[in-house]
Write a structure and sequence with these properties.
This protein has about 280 residues and is mainly alpha-helical. It has helices spanning about 1-10, 15-35, 45-55, 65-85, 110-125, 125-140, 145, 175-185, 210-220, 225-235, 240-250, 255-260, 265-275; strands at about 155, 160-165, 170-175. The chain has a three-stranded antiparallel β-sheet. A hairpin with a 4-residue loop joins strand 1 and strand 2. The radius of gyration is 22 Å and the shape is globular.
Length: about 280
Amino acid sequence: MNEFEKYLKDENVSSNTAETYLIAVRQYHKWYLESFGEEFTKLYRQNVLEFISYLKNVRNLKYESINVKIAALVIYNSFLSSVDPEQDRVVDKHDYLSVQTQFASPSTATEKDVDEFRQRVLVGNGVRDHAIATLICYTGLRISETVNLKLTDIFFDSREIKVVGKGDKFRTVYFNDKVAAALREYLKVRVGDGEYLFTTRQSEKISRQQVNRIFNKYSKDITPHVLRHFYCTNALEKGYSYHEVANQAGHSNINTTLRYTNPTAQKMRDKANKL
């Protein structure tokens, strides 16, 4: 596994994706041991197909989650083939499960929900955490991108943020007055003199786990990822083009952005009542 981790780094796989893949492969190893009573030594296609069946029918995982584990096994297969000439290529992208996208917006939070959430965070936890929530809500940044922001990435005059996204790709994200005000108020009380924007009293950078705990404290439904979904849906409804949202959110595939054009379930019910 140590060699596989090094292989992922050499392949320029992002740290978050690499960790996801490592967890998935360890799960495969555990399943293999429990199923066959011996340690894993080689990938066999029959075993991979049985593992996929186990995830579907025993674990009842969503197809999206299963596809992540298949993706991990695809690259793990490539790694094993590179170090062991007897390891065949037994799994590839053709094994991904077909996912039918639900005809509804992925954003489950309304603008009222989001505003009420941000206010609860402001009153309960203060200006730093309010700034984090407001930033994600109105820029669509990923949680990893948010915690890795540096002071030098923020440009108030031009209302721009320089973001390093997935695959170490750079993009420029524009922010509005609400974000500017929230960040300025936070900077007045920011602790420490490190390079990262969001700090704690104990470290120079807040962790994604801390951010998740803050969100969980004030809502059981709104997460950083939900706020990112809200941004994409809200931006399209306010007049952004598909390509503008894809650029701002850092979507590598425009089809990801197109998902947010689907109407909400409530809008579909309202239309149905007019028939």
